[in-house]
Each structure stands twice: as structure tokens, then as C-alpha cells.
């Protein structure tokens, strides 16, 4: 598989009111085209920080992140981040929330009809063709998160960065969206990096799971491979031995992270 992102010896330090905080230390990880990689670790270990660095929203204090061989120098539509709380503009309909992103990325080279078609297609892909004219306050949380996903997908990112995207949702809605994501990944081959607190979610959706140790100074504690070449089907996945094995290993890893006190 072709390497799309290389995270090379990356560290991130923050200046806080209590002094310098080394959040991440010496993270080295290759991400391959078309894979879904889960980021899992104890609370506050630096999962969002790593996603922000890949998105180009911040620069690493040490090391380098390469995307297609070039250092990540800032945000770009090829690397789109989806947040836990959808971040939709409340005064725009679902359609217009997605259209805005489509126009930003493709507006320079496509006419209105093409942009509208892209928007319809993105909303249809997440099962929201019927909700285009609704406003965010008129739809439930799961649908809002679908719109956020549609908006991200509409930009045709090479890499979709998901920051615990389903954490705020009830279990049935969450399960639905996980299924949807598996289908979308199978259909589009988009590369995904997904931070999650949920062991089952990580093992179900990821081809590989990168386990981060407890921060401060979180490092890469190991990589699990629960999903390489597995079916894009939730139930089929849960029945596999690789699922139970990876789940047990990931749970054990998290339980064995010693509590540390910030310096
Ligand atoms: N801008 C910032 N300034 C100062 N400290 C920060 C900043 N961003 C993150 N941190 C600190 O860096 C560490 C890693 O934070 P981060 O949010 O990346 O972890 P996380 O694993 O995503 O957390 P969670 O499990 O709560 O989602 C935490 O100690 C956090 O307080």
C-alpha cells in the first residue's frame, strides 16, 4: 500500500500557565492510502493534537509531518477534519452548510449546477437527501453529525480526520453512523485517521489502531492490526477472532497505562 502520510519523530509542546507541557513525544507513524487508522489512548494523551497537526492547524514543535512526501504547511481540503460537535452554521440549511464547503473547494473551476450536484450527492451519500432544506436546530444530533460528514466528504479529501466523531451520540445512532462510515470507506477508498475513546469502535472500524501512552509526553505504545483485509460489515467483523483478540489487547493496553501527574 502506498504511504500517504509520514509522521516522523513528532513532538508537540504547549506553553501553559503552569509551564511547558510536552503533550506528544517522538511519534513516528506511516499512514497508507485507503486505510482507516484509529488513534486510541488515555484521556488527554494527545489524540486531537495529533489530528490537528496532520490537518495543518498547528505545526509540530519537533519532527515533521509529510503528506504525499511534502511537509504539511497548513490546512488544505485534501485533509479534512470532522469534529465531535459537527460545527454546522446554525443560520444555514443542511444543503447550504455543505454547499459552502463545496463552493470553497470547487468554486474556482466549476459552475453552479456542478456545485449543486456535488452537494446533493454528498448529502445523499449519508442518507440525507430528504433533509436538505432543514436547519441544524430542526434535526437530531445524529443527523447533524451526518451533515458534518457529508460536508467533509463533499470536499473529496484524500484524508478524512475524525475527532471522536460519534462520541456525543446515543448507541443506536452511533452504530448506524459507524455502519455508514464503513460503507463510505468501502465505496470511496478515502484514507481515515480517527481518534476515539471507544475500544469497540476503534477495533470495528480500523485497519490498524495506533495506541498512545498516557500523557504528558505521550508516545506510540504499539500498533494493533485488527482489520486488514476484513469485510466492511459490522456484524461480520464482530464475529471474527481478530476482533476479540484486538479488543482484549487494546483494553489491556489502556488498563496498564500508569496514572501520572503533570509536571
Ligand atoms: N492549545 C493548547 N494549549 C495548552 N495545552 C494544550 C493545548 N491543546 C492541548 N493541550 C494539552 O495537551 C494534552 C493533549 O490534549 P489533546 O486534547 O490532544 O488530548 P486528547 O487525547 O485528544 O484528549 P481527550 O481524550 O480528552 O479527547 C492535554 O494535556 C491538553 O490539556
Account of the 3D structure:
The protein has 263 residues and is of the alpha/beta class. The chain folds into two domains: 1-78 and 159-263, P-loop containing nucleotide triphosphate hydrolases (Rossmann fold, 3-Layer(aba) Sandwich); 88-156, no CATH class. Helices cover 36% and strands 25% of the residues. A six-stranded mixed β-sheet has the order 6-7-8-3-9-10, sandwiched between helices. A four-stranded antiparallel β-sheet has the order 2-1-4-5, with helices on one face. Helix 3 (112-125) packs across helix 4. The chain binds adenosine-5'-triphosphate. Residues 14, 16, 21, 23, 41, 43-49, 195, 215 line the site of adenosine-5'-triphosphate.
How are the elements arranged and paired?
Blueprint (H helix, E strand, L loop, with lengths): L2 E14 L2 E14 L3 E5 L6 H9 L6 E6 L2 E2 L7 E4 L11 H13 L5 H14 L15 H14 L4 E5 L7 H18 L2 E5 L3 H7 L2 E5 L7 E5 L9 H5 L2 H15 L8
Parallel strand pairs: 3-8, 3-9, 6-7, 7-8
Antiparallel strand pairs: 1-2, 1-4, 4-5, 9-10
Helix pairs in contact: 2-3, 2-4, 3-4, 6-8
Amino acid at each position: 500500500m502506498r504511504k500517504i502520510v509520514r509522521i516522523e519523530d513528532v513532538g508537540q509542546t504547549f506553553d501553559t500557565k503552569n509551564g511547558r507541557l510536552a503533550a506528544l513525544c517522538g511519534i513516528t507513524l506511516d499512514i497508507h492510502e485507503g486505510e482507516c487508522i484509529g488513534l486510541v489512548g488515555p484521556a488527554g494523551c494527545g489524540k486531537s493534537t495529533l489530528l490537528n497537526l496532520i490537518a495543518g492547524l498547528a505545526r509540530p514543535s519537533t519532527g515533521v509531518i509529510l503528506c504525499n512526501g511534502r511537509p504539511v504547511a497548513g490546512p488544505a481540503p485534501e485533509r479534512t477534519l470532522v469534529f465531535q460537535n459537527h460545527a454546522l452554521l446554525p443560520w444555514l440549511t443542511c444543503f447550504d452548510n455543505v454547499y459552502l464547503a463545496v463552493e470553497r473547494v470547487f468554486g474556482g473551476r466549476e459552475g453552479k449546477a456542478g456545485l449543486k450536484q456535488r452537494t446533493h450527492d454528498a448529502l445523499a451519500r449519508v442518507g440525507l437527501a430528504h433533509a436538505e432544506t432543514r436547519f441544524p436546530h430542526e434535526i437530531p444530533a445524529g443527523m447533524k453529525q451526518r451533515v458534518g460528514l457529508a460536508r467533509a466528504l463533499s470536499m473529496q479529501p484524500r484524508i478524512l480526520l475524525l475527532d471522536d466523531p460519534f462520541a456525543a451520540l446515543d448507541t443506536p445512532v452511533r452504530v448506524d453512523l459507524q455502519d455508514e462510515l464503513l460503507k463510505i470507506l468501502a465505496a470511496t477508498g478515502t484514507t481515515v485517521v480517527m481518534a476515539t475513546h471507544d475500544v469497540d469502535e476503534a477495533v470495528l472500524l480500523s485497519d490498524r489502531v495506533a495506541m498512545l501512552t498516557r500523557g504528558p509526553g505521550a508516545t506510540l505504545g504499539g500498533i494493533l492490526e485488527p482489520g486488514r483485509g476484513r469485510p466492511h460489515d459490522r456484524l461480520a467483523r464482530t464475529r471474527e477472532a481478530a476482533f476479540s483478540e484486538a479488543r482484549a489487547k487494546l483494553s489491556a493496553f489502556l488498563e496498564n497505562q500508569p496514572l501520572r501527574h503533570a509536571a
